[in-house]
Specification:
Elements (H helix, E strand, L loop, with lengths): L8 H13 L12 H8 L3 H13 L3 E4 L3 E4 L14 H7 L4 E12 L15 E11 L2 E10 L17 H8 L4 E10 L2 H6 L7 E11 L2 E10 L10
Antiparallel strand pairs: 1-2, 3-4, 4-5, 5-8, 6-7, 7-8
Length: 233
């Protein structure tokens, strides 16, 4: 990279990132001061500062007032997770998709969820149960609560032609979320829904998404045997 490639903060960030990845700067090592880097790259000190702040936000460097900037000893290892549209997921496998809405109801949020999914007390949420299919075989069973304060248009949706999963991805953008993965054994009800034997080990996940401080939806997805999740690191 030439100096002319580093006249923007993004260009400087890429060069600093290269030096970290190539171990020119070792983990824990202090890197040159902003003023020295600005002189090297022929740019304003504020431009270097912006690049370093981005690296700090990513956890790749640690900045301390009056102590300078050091390469992180244990940079975070992150996986990239997106909310999949189950229809697209099934079709990407070369299989045909459909879903069946089993239950749709307005009801208070169960007390067990109040701590994690904080909606206004006394307000109803939209509760849905949906069974997703791949080639007419059960693919996943979904239980979902939608905060109508965050997605008011959901109140009028029946979710019979387009699933809540797909509709929310397109109509209720989220800023962040929590997700957990776990294994569970199929009870009699789940075994019947997913066409498997009672006691079969199943892959499940729970996810909550927010728009700022407002929760949008809480969903539990339980997948039929054989499901495999893939992501990027």
């Amino acid at each position: 990279m030439t100096l002319t490639d580093t006249n923007s903060w993004t260009g400087i960030r890429e060069e600093l990132l290269r030096r970290i990845h190539d171990r020119i700067w070792q983990p824990g090592e202090q890197i040159p001061h902003e003023a020295d880097l600005a002189e090297e790259f022929g740019c304003a000190r504020t431009t270097v500062n912006r690049a370093l702040r981005d690296l700090a936000d990513s956890g790749l460097v640690v900045r301390k007032r009056r102590a300078g900037t050091r390469v992180a000893l244990n940079p975070p290892q992150k996986a990239t997770l997106t909310i999949p549209i189950l229809r697209e997921e099934v079709e990407a496998l070369g299989r045909s998709y459909r879903h069946s809405l089993l239950e749709r109801d307005l009801r208070p949020l169960p007390p067990v969820l109040h701590g994690a999914f904080q909606v206004s007390l006394g307000e109803d949420v939209l509760f849905l149960k949906t069974l997703h299919f791949a080639d007419d075989r059960p693919y996943a069973f979904e239980e979902r609560y939608i905060n109508l304060a965050a997605a008011p248009a959901a109140r009028e949706r029946q979710f019979e032609t387009v699933s809540a999963n797909e509709w929310l991805v397109h109509n209720a953008p989220y800023s962040h979320g929590d997700i957990s993965f776990f294994a569970m054994s199929a009870d009699k009800t789940l075994a019947a829904k997913l066409d498997t034997a009672k006691g079969t080990a199943l892959f499940a996940m729970e996810r909550i998404t927010w728009s700022g401080d407002m929760p949008i939806t809480h969903v539990r997805l339980i997948f039929a045997p054989g499901y495999r999740m893939r992501t990027e690191i």
